[in-house]
Every structure is written in C-alpha cells, then in structure tokens.
Amino acid sequence: MGVRISTVLGVHVWLAFCAYAAPRWNIQFLYDHADSNFSIQDLECPTAKHCVAAGWIDDKKGHEQGAVVVSSDAGQHWSQYETKERPISLFFLNDGLGWMVTDRGLWSTVEGGRSWTKIQARKGILATWFLDAGHGYMIGVKGLVEETADGGKTWAKIAAADKVPDAQSVTYGIVTFRGPHGIIIGGPSPSEPAFSDVAPRSPGRAKMAVLETLDGGQKWTAGTISMDGELAQLKISGQGFVVSLVQYNDPKIKVGSAVYKTPLGSRDGSVIFAERDRMVTDFALLDDHAVVATIEPPGDSAQVPIPGKLRILRSDNLKIWEEMDVDYRAVAQHAIIAAPDTQNMWVATDTGAILKLVE
Prior knowledge:
Helices cover 4% and strands 51% of the residues. It is mainly β. A five-stranded mixed β-sheet has the order 26-1-30-29-28, with no helix packed on it. Strands 22, 23, 24, 25 and 27 form a five-stranded antiparallel β-sheet that branches.
C-alpha cells in the first residue's frame, strides 16, 4: 500500500503510481471455443521461462481428449499437444525433465512436455515427486506409496505405509519435500476409487495418515492426525513451519476453506487466511511471501457450484493480505498456482486460462 500524501499534487502522483506500478494478473493463454472446454488439472513452471499445463478438453458431445500446453518464453507463446490419456498431475525437475500422472499410468518427458513416453501402466496414481532424475515417489489410491531409484521404471513399496491403520483404505494425495524433509499425507478413500468419479466426502472429522522423513527417504515414520475438513495442500517452509490448505464441506462451518500456519513438530496451527466469500483452491509459499488463489462463490454459499470470479491475494508476512488486480475475464471453480520465484508467478484455471503476474 502507498503512503498517504496530504497535498493535492502529491495525491495525484500517488494515484498515478498505483495505477501504473501495481502488479496485475493478465491472461496469457485462453482456450476459447464455444463447443468445448479445457479443464487444466495442473500447472508446473520449473523456471521463469518454462511452463507446462495439462488437463483434458471435453466437448458438448461428451468426447474427451488429453492436452498439454507448453511455453518456453515466459508465456509469450504457447504450443498445444494432444496426449493419449487424461492428465491428472505434473512434476518437473527442470525445463526438460518431467513426469505426468494420467488416469492410466505414469509418463516422462525429456523435452519439456512436448513429447511423452509411458513408463508405468497403472490406474490409481495421483501424484509424483522426484528429488533428482532417479529418486522419486508416487502416491495414490488403496494405500499406494512407492519409491523409485531409476527415474520411474521400477518401483518398491515404502514399508512404513503398512503401519498406518487400515492402510489399504487410504488415498494418498499430497507429497511434498523441502530438502531432505518430506511429508506424504492421505485420507479416507472415496467409495469409488476412479479419479473422475470421486464425490465430495461427508461432513465430519476424518483421520489422516501421515508419513514423514527427515533424511531424504532413507527412513520414514508413520502416524495419524484427526481433522475437520479435507486437507487439500501442504507445503514446508524453510523457516520452521508448514502451511496447509483445508477445504470444508460442512454447512455448519461458515467458510469453505482456511489456510493454516503450523510450527514443525506441533499439531496446533493458526489460521492465516479464511474468508466467507473466498474459496481457496491453491497457494504458493516463498519464505514469508505467500499468494493464495481463490474463487468468489456466486451467491451466499461458501462452496463453488459453478465458475466464479478468480480472486488472488498476497501477503508479505502471512498476516495481512492484499487483493491483487486480476483480469476480469478469469472465472473458474478451481485454480492452480506455479511460482518458481516471487517475480515469476502463473495461475491456471479449470476453464482453460493461464494468467501471469506482470508489473
């Protein structure tokens, strides 16, 4: 925020500065076809120049086609490629090397997402994370937590996952690392395990499975925590805490989502962002700097039954949040953030738009 200047001339200068210097989220890519929609499921920008978004295109006749869009010039130009299966999630180590989870397996690329090779034929994978070109993890339904040492060609189960109660009923949806510190989290499996058929879970308190390593995966510990709502995202800060996103499906809770800050080793977190008219779908954490992607639900509901306005807010201290200027055309039910650094950030929506933060 600017400093108030008492003179009339000063006020005009201040207003002009705000108008021209304020960062703005501009649409860089927009899938604009009246007869179909591009539902972007994930976005990865490993560097300031390279971004990859993946999802599927569906038309009014019910046809679906997997698709990937790639930019290698900081979003100025985008190229679109078809995929044989429906993308679910992405992970990239650098501009060239990455992995893509689909509804029927795991694929890898050495060409920055322009071409893909299938390395695992398996349903039920939801996400991957690689520490280097060889060492990585994949997680998913029915207790799936496995490790690879050869880039994903062969996999072995992590033994600690069997120590979780009802291990085969857990769906693991979150895996994150910061250096050697890694956390994998899962919750109760939905009655139908197919990714496209997952229904909202019933309101109430759920038990979450937590696997944690402090040495890059050489040793894992297993435990459980109980919580209200569904844990949608978690990231580890380099300053001794984690930030998590919890989404609620309980009409008794007045907000649809809340972002928490929790010291490492503690189960008591404090809310750092929760607003009734803002449904958080993702966040980026860069030390103390954070950005949240939210949807403004139509009407009075805290949920997002139809696309609503995309609203993005930022904070430099995880306490005070400032709403940012977003292209008025951006609407969505879900938005994903990719941020290689504080100066280069992108947001993708399930309505086929990719926005970039520009000064």
